[in-house]
Amino acid sequence: MKIPYSVLDLATVIQGKAPADTFKNSVALAQHVEKLGYTRYWFAEHHNMVSVASSATSVLIGHIAGNTEKIRVGSGGIMLPNHSPLIVAEQFGTLATLYPNRIDLGLGRAPGTDQLTAMEIRGGRFSDPHSFPQDVLKLQKYLSNDNSQSKVRAIPGEGTEVPIWILGSSTESAHLAASYGLPYAFASHFAPAYFLEAINIYRQNFRPSATLKEPYVMSCVNVVAADTDAEAERLATSLKQLFMGIVTGQRKLLQPPINNMDEIWNDMEEAAVNQMLSVAFIGGSKKLTAQLQSFRDQTKIDEIMVTSHIYDHEARLYSYQLFADIMKSL
Fold it and tell me: What sequence ranges are listed for the domain Luciferase-like (predicted)?
């Protein structure tokens, strides 16, 4: 049975370009993947990162939705502890009013940044007890018709019932998604260590809800596809350099591909990057078809979301085309 395939766009800023170029490329990519049959196009909230331009996540969601026709657009995710649930309900309620039945709201509990920046974002709420589970319930209520008699209402937003997803990179989020009966999206594109354990916990503890009767798992993965395995591996050196910057704390704009990573990393950095990329699909169509079929058989995922850090825009578009062709063949 074929499964939906979607896109996570981190609005990556590449070396030699500016965020304005990134946003133009995002529109072009969204229009491209819409034609290829992709289901969703999500942005992730990050702050104080030179290579990520999706800090104003809801603004970008509106921009993409306004430049496409039918693909679902949403967050993967909004870092809810950074915001008041009412403000999120109003923002996504506005988006859902402008673009009915096309908006998704994925929620995460991490700050999406470093601790110093998180303090600037959250202000006096930084030291408050963690209220993520309660805030998810508040947000659900604001977006429902059940809140119509409340003294505090989300206008617009109330009654839009924007679909909510729980995002995770650990097992804690799996318990929450299961107990609330919400779909679960796992960040296996950068935190694969707990992936299998987390989705097993989610499925075993899932409680049906008014919005979801059976567990629904989406895995986000890195994909670099090209005509040959060798070309894909070369293109993927941009991704590996990006992750190397995370490991070393020396973040840079997305760098052009190079011929040999051994010239720039040491053994410890290589091991750390490869661990983070243990759920990544890099290669030509034949290799990726076999790997993706095996991945589906092992994980039984319901949907797959792709992020592709590729320096050249045309090569990135082509990678998403090849991936769509593969998914249609499985």
Answer: 17-243
